[in-house]
Design a protein that fits this description.
Elements (H helix, E strand, L loop, with lengths): L9 E5 L15 E8 L21 H20 L4 E4 L13 H5 L2 E2 L19 H13 L2 E11 L21 E10 L5 E6 L5 E3 L2 E2 L5 E2 L9 E3 L5 E6 L6 H8 L8 E5 L12 H12 L2 E5 L4 H4 L2 E5 L2 E6 L9 E8 L6 H6 L17 E2 L13 E10 L2 E10 L7 E10 L7 E11 L3 H8 L30 E6 L6 E8 L10 E4 L2 E5 L4 E9 L15 E5 L1
Parallel strand pairs: 1-17, 2-3, 3-5, 4-5, 6-10, 12-13, 13-14, 18-28
Antiparallel strand pairs: 2-17, 5-6, 6-7, 8-9, 11-12, 14-15, 15-16, 19-20, 20-23, 21-22, 21-28, 22-27, 23-26, 24-27, 25-26
Helix pairs in contact: 1-3
Length: 552
């Protein structure tokens, strides 16, 4: 018998109607999209406890998740959805399990797109996940995007690997394993498969690469697919969203005409730059002016938060950090955006004067008290703070009407360099994070720790390790955050309120590397995350990411 055959799936149908914000003239038609946040059955990440009726690994787990997909797909199609997107590793989280037996059922040789529909292919026992997904897409007549593991022979002339931490080599098995996003048409045809470009590695020996997933150095894969309802979708997975490739490059190429993206993730919410997922989704959609269909896992505060976005406007979203297992189906009508022109791409971020950043200095922390602003009267606090790092300057202005008890403290950070892991995530970032009642040193140490628990970090842990860390109580009237970004930086505006909830799109003004946010709920964090061009990260200044910060 199957385990966990029936899922408690909540449907939220959001339609664009008279009460929605006024649409631009270029938004002349729509399609209907669904994302399914799957609280993955099985696997260690889901807190699975094995029993005779619920195994944690193996084919029963894979089949149980695929059965849940079928339920969600039927419901989405009943709501008129043309496409459904599922999360990263949602078929079987043993995608990340280095154990050979466990991973055997999560990985298979995915066929080449464009051949016979896998549902009809002979010898489909060689790719059971692909075959089942193809048949589900056909059965429910819906374009389907899901994520699992592809097994492919090593590239010709690859050298043999020596040791588990070796990279850019061929394992003794003779095959490479890829974290893979796969798209099927509503008739079950395999439209495209995309191999994740940027593995989530928090250190050279910690993450997807050390668990045997290809590839380091990153091997760029640029994939997109066309649908019968006239929309072309770009593809990317989880950590890819913070890099220039593939998503940003696809979006900024006017020849491709891609304004819509499918995004599968199993997000980690440790703290900056890994803020709660919906903030990142909204910022990416707004910063690039695109539609984003984002499906996350439904596993607690760390791996949950899904949504459907159009140029930063959340058409449907859901994040409940207090729920350990949270299946959620979101459905929304999505406007078809007009083709992007070269002028549109150039106008995303208006140029500022270019500057050459010197080598990043050691961190410098300053004490900065909260004092009433002279221009605001006795009932208002106006904060003005500035921090800098390697010639990059961040400025914060915040206005607060005084309340009897103000318990939150906030840290302003300037980051000019590579964030975490293999030092391959370069950014110029202006960040504001809630510290609660932590000292400046404690908050800064947690905000720069990449793992939830890490004895090598000064604080021994990251900023967010439990759902309660996302709670905030201070309601600012508004904040203004800005930085002197370079002309070619792509700046993503991200902001979140207590428990990782979004700010209404109409309350965010963003232009030229500056963001002004009106707030009616407690502020959790805000970030201007700039993705630089490759040419601007070649100097030694990018060897290490060091932040300058102050408590405000």
């Amino acid at each position: 018998s199957r385990c966990v055959l029936q899922a408690a799936i909540t449907a939220v149908l959001v339609r664009v109607g008279a009460s929605s914000p006024v649409l631009d003239l270029e938004e002349t038609s729509f399609y209907t999209a669904a994302v399914f946040q799957n609280a993955i059955v099985g696997g260690d990440d889901a807190g699975c406890t094995p029993s005779p009726t619920q195994p944690c690994h193996g084919p029963a787990v894979r089949d149980a998740n695929l059965h849940k997909f079928g339920i969600a797909m039927a419901q989405a199609r009943a709501e008129g959805a043309d496409i459904i997107v599922l999360g990263e590793g949602a078929v079987d989280s043993d995608l990340w399990n280095p154990g050979h037996w466990q991973r055997h059922f999560a990985c298979e040789s995915i066929p080449t797109p464009g051949m016979i529909a896998p549902c009809d292919a002979p010898g489909s026992d060689r790719f059971p996940i692909t075959q089942r997904a193809s048949c589900l897409a056909r059965e429910h007549h819906i374009v389907t995007v899901l994520n699992y593991c592809d097994v492919q022979p090593c590239q010709n002339a690859s050298r043999p690997c020596n040791g588990s931490s070796d990279v850019f080599c061929c394992p003794a098995s003779g095959v490479e394993l890829f974290n893979t996003q796969v798209a099927f048409s509503e008739t079950g045809e395999l439209l495209a498969k995309y191999h994740k470009t940027h593995n989530y590695d928090t250190a050279p020996d910690q993450g997807e690469t050390s668990n045997g997933l290809c590839c380091w150095p990153p091997r760029l894969d640029m994939q997109y697919f066309d649908t019968s309802f006239g929309v072309r979708f770009g593809m990317h997975i989880c950590f890819d969203i913070l890099f220039r490739t593939p998503g940003v490059t696809l979006a900024l190429d006017p020849a491709l005409g891609i304004r819509d993206f499918v995004y599968s993730s199993h997000w980690e919410a440790t703290g900056p730059p890994m803020l709660p997922a919906m903030e990142v989704h909204q910022g990416w959609s707004r910063g690039l002016g695109v539609n984003l269909l984002a499906a996350n896992a439904g596993l607690g505060y760390r791996h949950a938060g899904s949504g459907i976005y159009s140029r930063g406007r959340a058409l449907a979203e859901h994040y409940d950090p207090n729920k350990a297992h949270d299946d959620q189906l979101l459905v929304a009508r999505v406007p078809k955006l007009g083709a992007r022109t070269a002028a549109d791409s150039q106008a995303l971020n208006q140029p500022r004067d270019r500057f050459m950043a010197p080598p990043v200095p050691a961190a410098s922390f300053q004490e900065w008290g909260i004092l009433p602003g002279s221009s605001g009267g006795e009932t208002t606090v106006i904060l003005n703070a500035t921090v800098s790092s390697g010639g990059f300057v961040c400025t914060l202005k915040a206005v607060l009407s005084l309340f009897p008890h103000i318990t939150d403290r906030y840290l302003l950070m300037a980051v000019n360099g590579s964030w975490m892991g293999r030092k391959n995530l370069p950014s110029r970032s202006c960040v504001v994070v809630r510290c609660g009642n932590l000292s400046e040193q404690q908050c800064a140490a947690r905000a720069t720790c990449a793992d939830y628990q890490d004895s090598t970090c000064a604080a021994g842990r990251s900023l967010y390790t439990v759902a309660e860390d996302l709670s905030a109580s201070t309601v600012w009237d508004h904040i203004e955050l800005s930085g002197n970004f370079e002309a070619d930086d792509l700046v993503l505006p991200m902001v979140g309120t207590s428990m990782g909830q979004l700010v209404e799109d109409s309350n965010i003004d963003f232009a030229q590397g500056s963001m002004r946010v009106l707030l009616d709920r407690p502020l959790l964090n805000a970030m201007l995350f700039a993705i630089p061009t490759a040419s601007s990260t070649d100097s030694p200044a990018w060897a290490n990411g060091v932040s300058d910060a102050m408590l405000v």
